[in-house]
Amino acid sequence: MDFLLVIILAVIVIYSIMTYNSLVNISNNVAKAWANIDVLLKQRNEELPKLIDTCKAYMQHESSTLEKVIRARMGLDAVRQTQDVAGLNRAESSLSASLVDLYAVAENYPDLKADQSFINLQQRITGLENQIADRREFYNDSVNINNVRIEQFPDLIVARVFNFQYKEMLQFAPEELKDIDVGSRFNN
After folding, report:
1. Which tops the pLDDT comparison, 139 or 175?
2. All structural domains of the chain with their residue ranges
C-alpha cells in the first residue's frame, strides 16, 4: 500500500513538473510574440516622422492631417511602452485611420506622390504594417494556446497554484473591419 502511494505521488509530482514547464514555455512564447510586435511598432514609429517631414515640404496647407498622424503616433508609442493590449487596439486603429487620410491627401500632390523618398517611406511603412499583421496573428495564436492550457483540467490546477495569467488577444477595431469604398478613391 505504501509503495502504491509513493508511485501515485511520484506520478503527480512528475506530471506537475511537466505541466509547469510546459506552461512556462507557453507564457514565454506569448512574451516573445509581444516583443516581436513591439520591435515592429517601434520601427514603424521611427519611420513615421521621416514620412511626415517629407510630406510637410509639399503639404503646407494640410497641417491638420499631419498633426493627426503625429498625435496617433505619440498615442501608439505610449501604449506600446505600457504593453496595454486594449489600448494598443485603439491606438492602432487611430494610426491606421490617420495614415489612410494622409495617403488620400497625398493623392492631391503629384510632386509628393512622385518623390522617391515618399515612395520609399510609404513602401517601408506598408511592409511594416504587413509584418505587424503577421506578428499579431502569431501573438493571438500564442495567447490562445496559453488561455486554453490554463483553463483545461488538470492543467488549471498547476496554473492556479503558480498564478499563470489569462492573456488578452489583440482584437480588430470595428473601423478595421469596415468595407472600404474603393470607388470614392478613384473619384479624387
Report:
1. 139
2. 2-174
Can you tell me the distance from the alpha carbon of 168 to that of 161, in angstroms, rounded to the nearest whole number? 20
Query: Mean pLDDT for the chain?
Result: 83
Q: What nine digits make up the cell of 8?
A: 501515485
Instruction: Give me the residue label for grid cell 506537475.
Output: 16
The answer to whether 145 and 33 have CB atoms below 8 angstroms apart is no
Cβ contact 80:88 at 8 Å:
yes
CB 163 within 8 A of CB 43: no
Q: CA–CA distance from 118 to each of 56, 100, 102, 162 (Å)?
A: 11, 15, 12, 51
> Nearest to residue 121, comparing CAs of 56, 51, 66?
51
Q: Residue 73's pLDDT band (boundaries 50, 70, 90)?
A: confident
Cell numbers linked to 127: 511592409
Reported as a pLDDT band with limits 50, 70 and 90, residue 179 is very low
Tell me how far apart the alpha carbons of residues 32 and 145 are, in angstroms, rounded to a whole number. 14
Confidence (pTM): 0.72
184 near 103, Cβ under 8 Å? no
* Class of the domain covering 2-174: mainly alpha
Phi, psi (degrees; rounded to nearest 5) at 152: -85, 140
